[in-house]
Design a protein that fits this description.
Layout lengths: L15 H12 L9 H15 L3 E8 L2 E8 L8 E6 L22 E3 L3 H21 L7 E6 L7 H8 L6 E4 L7 E2 L1 E2 L1 E10 L14 H13 L9 H5 L2 E10 L15 E10 L5 H18 L4 E6 L12 E2 L5 H14 L5 E2 L11 H6 L4 E4 L13 E3 H19 L1
Parallel strand pairs: 3-5, 3-6, 6-15, 7-14
Antiparallel strand pairs: 1-2, 2-5, 4-16, 8-13, 9-11, 9-12, 10-11
Length: 408
């Protein structure tokens, strides 16, 4: 085996053209959630991994829908490391000035739908392993590459990989964090609030209880609240609630054809983010407390708060947390410092700590220790979504250094 300096892999300079070519190719395949492009890209990655000598397979998630799984076996006696990322993307929005599937590159950025969330992360660890193979260095521990579908449906692709028995000693989820090491993110839940007032014609508005007016008082109270049971300031920092949809009108059907009539029913749909020391029950209780304050301000108003039922059956993401002093996090911190020459931001990194990620499933369902760290983030999920090329290339170097540190 080749003997190498401690930071040799961090000093590897990945081929810029090759790295950008792979990422551009991935962008050009439309992989919006539950489209055939997801599995087209999965097949493309399996073929590429096989061509580079990796063990690889398609893993069926549902009929005709596949994860791509790769493995680089180690020589034995070292810790194994899994990289995890998703291939599916959100739909495009209005406002794009470049082709969302063009893979356009300029001097500073690479553009495309899902490049930040999170094809750059996926490409970064595949290129890193290809660089490792090119170096002729064999690590002691296995490297496992997972490219999953359905993350935007609650992580069903990663859950399928876990159910199949796929495990490693450590994992790195490469969701976009601007290369910070995220060791804590919130759990997510969706809620429904129904306000029921009393209708009257506007001529007798004083006799009514206007559900819309009451909702206008309730929404800002919810949008600024935190939850009880946060045992640390870090936990409180990942608390957030937001009302994202409102329907109001007459009756349960929310009829909107009679604007002279005072609305008696309003339905609010929202989402909450909570910490490991909290849970769905305690969050809903706190929201009900805020709702009760509004009811007291509008005597006769009734408000119900319930967890939204997910008709699709897709799971929500629980909170994720790992010890910032764990060997994995310290190895990633060391890798970042070796590449960037300054300390790595670490902890409940904002705004990304409000996202849900497959890291939570890997922690809770597979009992694995991990961290979230990947390129992209600043221009995440927006028109002209893009990633800094420098961050993408540095992510490759960070992965190489981390593999050497952890896997021996």
């Amino acid at each position: 085996m080749t003997t190498t300096p401690h930071h040799w892999l961090a000093a590897v300079s990945p081929d810029r053209a090759e790295a950008l070519a792979l990422l551009s190719e991935m962008i050009k395949i439309d992989t919006r959630t539950q489209t055939t492009g997801e599995s087209v890209l999965a097949r493309t990655l399996v073929e590429r991994m096989r061509a580079h000598g990796l063990e690889s397979e398609l893993q069926e998630v549902s009929p005709g829908r596949f994860n791509a799984i790769g493995r680089l076996p180690g020589s034995g006696g070292g810790k194994s490391l899994m990289f995890n990322g998703h291939l599916d993307t959100n739909p495009p929005t209005e406002g794009w000035t470049v082709d969302p599937w063009g893979g356009h590159v300029d001097d500073e950025f690479i553009y495309g739908l899902g490049v930040s969330n999170m094809k750059a992360g996926c490409a970064s660890y595949l290129i890193a392993v290809e660089e490792l193979l090119r170096s002729k260095i064999r690590l002691r521990g296995d490297i496992i590459l997972t490219f999953v579908v359905g993350e935007l449906q609650g992580g069903i692709g990663t859950l399928r990989a876990i159910e199949s028995g796929l495990r490693a000693d450590y994992f790195i989820n490469c969701e976009p964090t601007d290369l910070a090491a995220m060791t804590l993110h919130a759990g997510s839940l969706k809620f429904t609030i129904e306000l029921t007032g009393i209708t009257r014609h506007m001529s007798k508005r004083e006799e009514a209880i206007d559900a819309i007016t009451a909702a206008c008082s309730l929404i800002p109270a919810i949008n600024t609240m935190t939850f009880s049971g946060a045992s640390t300031t870090a936990y409180q920092s990942v608390n957030r609630a937001h009302v994202g949809a409102i329907r109001g009108g007459l009756g349960r059907e929310t009829v909107d054809s009679r604007p002279p009539q005072v609305a008696d029913v309003v339905t609010l749909l929202g989402a909450a983010r909570y910490a490991p020391s909290q849970d769905v029950t305690s969050v809903l209780k706190d929201i009900r407390t805020v709702a009760a304050d509004v009811c007291r301000a509008y005597p006769g108003l009734q408000i119900t708060v319930t967890e939204s039922r997910n008709a699709t059956g897709f799971p929500d993401f629980p909170p994720f947390e790992t010890d910032p002093a764990s060997p994995l996090v310290l190895a990633v911190n060391d890798a970042f410092a070796a590449v960037r020459r300054h300390p790595q931001p670490t902890g409940a990194v904002r705004p990304y700590c409000f996202y849900g990620t497959d890291a939570a499933h890997l922690q809770h369902r597979a009992n694995m220790q991990g961290v979230v760290c990947g390129p992209g983030g600043r221009y995440n999920t927006m028109p002209d979504e893009r990633v800094d090329i420098a961050d993408y290339l540095d992510a490759i170097r960070i992965h190489l250094h981390t593999m050497q540190q952890l896997c021996g």
